């Protein structure tokens, strides 16, 4: 069965050749069976032609077969006359049988073609459903669907466009002209392009359009309108509904996460901000006393400075975290020296000399990153290691490993249980109290991870209970 009929001229040639060969074959079979019964041999050619090229050429072949059978085999031969009445009956029966066979062959071919088209349409619908409903952005799925549709139906081009309206402008236009409604649709059309547009609707609302080239076959366009467009409408409506549901889920998750962050932030503000403020106010009130000695006054002033520094760092952490959560901490990459960044972070902490033991490979290549963000990340990481080191020096080592720079910060603290290692980088998560009795705000390590990942790196922890803890930062080398 041919999907498309061969050229009509080929059918005429096949019919002529088939009638000629069958006529010769009847001569060969003349001694085997009566002449009148051999007319059925012509039906093979008639069926072949009718099946491939249609009923009209099949009927023409039947007429030609009847004429050849009459001229060459029915007495008197060599003339288009019939001597005996029984030969007339035989010829008429053959002709009727040939025409009926042609019609039945045409009907069978039409049914077979319709079944094949329905199978193609079912496969096409399944493929479009897979492309439209597999997830991801709907706008990205529409071009592949259009290409698959054009390929399956033999179209020169096919495109699916979502309806894009400008509601405020349309409402203003309707109000000004006294209309019940008005909408302005956005549509990109190539200059001079002629198209056929099939609106895609969900109920009374247009949700999109199927755009085909205007030069397509009329039968194909009718098939698209009757069978393809309704299936596409249902799939597009389902995809839009899925996108709406996904958007609601994402919005709900974002709101839930926002509530969690707000609650944690309020807790941090209520305790972590109040503690240094209380200490500052208490020291400031004590400084007013005229009975304070000079040493006590210096001690109170140092306490105010220390708590104010702690408060400033906490506020900086809150601002950094808010930018990271809002995805507003866009890095400004530049060629940066890891050794200089680590030195600046240690200097910013202003801790006693000897707190950190720095070992940096002298041939360390530069990294392509935002040095200010890396400095903030390392400052938080080093401060966290210092608080848990129990007074022992913190080891900081940096080296190049396979084209990636590894910075390892090792303290001699109590270690981190395995159950907590997956959560210590979460905002506001507090693993416990360090050896000095200080309870962290749960912001430092979250900021470390946020800034490191924003600059193309990653950070993880390696620790066992009652043993040293290592935080490892991996950064890409500048290419």
In short, what is this structure?
This protein is of the alpha+beta class. The longest helix is centred in the middle third of the chain and has 70 residues, at 218-287.
What does this structure look like?
- The chain has 479 residues and is α+β, with helices and mostly antiparallel strands.
- It folds into three domains: 8-114; 134-243, no CATH class; 334-476, 2-Layer Sandwich (Heat Shock Protein 90).
- Helices cover 57% and strands 13% of the residues.
- The protein is built from twelve helices and ten strands.
- It has helices spanning 8-28, 42-53, 55-72, 85-133, 138-153, 167-177, 218-287, 294-325, 338-349, 371-387, 418-421, 444-454, and strands at residues 158-162, 195-202, 205-213, 334-336, 356-360, 367-369, 394-401, 404-411, 458-463, 469-476.
- The strands form three sheets. Strands 5-7-8-10-9 form a five-stranded mixed sheet, covered by helices on one side. The protein has a three-stranded antiparallel sheet with strand order 1-3-2.
- Helix 1 (8-28) packs parallel to helix 3, helix 9 packs across helix 10 and helix 10 (371-387) packs antiparallel against helix 12 (444-454).
- The chain is rod-shaped and about 150 Å long.
């Amino acid at each position: 069965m041919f999907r498309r009929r061969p050229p009509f001229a080929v059918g005429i040639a096949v019919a002529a050749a088939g009638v000629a060969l069958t006529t010769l074959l009847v001569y060969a079979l003349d001694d085997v069976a009566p002449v009148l019964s051999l007319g059925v041999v012509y039906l093979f050619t008639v069926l072949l032609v009718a099946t491939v090229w249609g009923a009209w050429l099949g009927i023409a072949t039947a007429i030609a077969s009847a004429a050849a059978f009459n001229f060459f085999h029915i007495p008197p031969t060599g003339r288009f006359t019939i001597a005996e009445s029984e030969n007339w009956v035989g010829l008429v029966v053959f002709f009727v049988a040939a025409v009926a066979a042609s019609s039945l062959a045409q009907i069978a071919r039409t049914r077979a073609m319709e079944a094949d088209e329905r199978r193609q349409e079912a496969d096409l619908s399944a493929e479009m459903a897979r492309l439209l409903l597999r997830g991801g952005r709907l706008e990205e799925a529409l071009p592949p669907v259009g290409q698959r549709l054009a390929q399956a139906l033999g179209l020169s081009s096919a495109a699916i466009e979502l309806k894009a309206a400008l509601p405020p402008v349309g409402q203003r236009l309707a109000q000004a002209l006294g209309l019940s409604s008005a909408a302005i649709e956005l549509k990109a059309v190539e200059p001079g392009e002629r198209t056929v547009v099939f609106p895609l609707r969900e109920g009374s609302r247009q949700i999109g359009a199927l755009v085909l080239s205007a030069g397509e076959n009329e039968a194909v366009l009718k098939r698209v309108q009757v069978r393809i467009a309704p299936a596409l409408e249902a799939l597009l409506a389902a995809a839009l509904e899925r996108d709406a549901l996904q958007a609601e889920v994402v919005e709900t998750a974002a709101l839930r996460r926002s509530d969690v962050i707000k609650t944690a932030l309020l807790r941090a503000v209520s305790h972590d901000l109040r503690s240094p403020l209380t200490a500052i106010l208490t020291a400031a009130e004590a400084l007013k006393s005229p009975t304070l000695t000079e040493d006590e006054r210096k001690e109170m002033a140092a306490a105010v400075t220390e708590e104010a520094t702690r408060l400033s760092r906490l506020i900086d952490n809150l601002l950094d975290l808010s930018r990271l959560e809002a995805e507003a901490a866009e890095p400004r990459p530049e060629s940066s020296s890891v050794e200089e960044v680590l030195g600046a972070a240690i200097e910013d902490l202003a801790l006693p000399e000897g707190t950190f033991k720095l070992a940096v490979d002298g041939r360390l290549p530069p990294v392509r990153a935002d040095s200010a963000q890396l400095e903030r990340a390392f400052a938080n990481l080093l401060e966290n290691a210092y608080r848990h080191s129990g007074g022992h020096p913190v080891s900081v080592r940096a080296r190049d490993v396979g084209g990636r720079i590894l910075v390892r910060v090792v303290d001699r603290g109590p270690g981190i249980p395995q159950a907590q290692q997956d959560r210590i980088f979460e905002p506001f998560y507090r693993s416990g109290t360090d050896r000095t009795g200080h309870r962290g705000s749960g912001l430092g390590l979250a900021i470390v991870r946020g800034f490191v990942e924003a600059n193309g790196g990653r950070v993880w922890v390696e620790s066992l209970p009652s043993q040293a803890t290592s935080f490892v930062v991996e950064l890409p080398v500048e290419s």
